[in-house]
Amino acid sequence: xxxxxxxxxxxxxxxxxxxxxxxxxxxxxxxxxxxxxxxxxxxxxxxxxxxxxxxxxxxxxxxxxxxxxxxxxxxxxxxxxxxxxxxxxxxxxxxxxxxxxxxxxxxxxxxxxxxxxxxxxxxxxxxxxxxxxxxxxxxxxx
Length: 142
Hints:
Elements: H1 53-72, H2 76-89, H3 96-110, H4 113-126, H5 133-137
Helix pairs in contact: 1-2, 1-3, 2-3, 3-4
């Protein structure tokens, strides 16, 4: 059996308007995603780009600088607060070793020598060749 040709005329493609050579016609916008249709009054939240490694490092440095400044100013409680925030925000951050060293110093300065000695010994076991080892080793010394 042979197929009969369709009698319906084929639509011709719409020609793009001719403009001067330096002007191009922008493509039509894509239709809204299905989950956004029929919700014209709902605000669309812009997603923030993920922080870069450099931004993360700067934030880590700022918290450690705050802790160090508090220690220098004789406020170990404020230093421990900044270090706790660092631990919460950057549990596996680049500056974990520096945080641990500063924490030992802050604990010793706060008078919590038992905990300071415990964390000092854990620090030296984990990082025996650290650039902070001598300073941490001398922390909470009688």
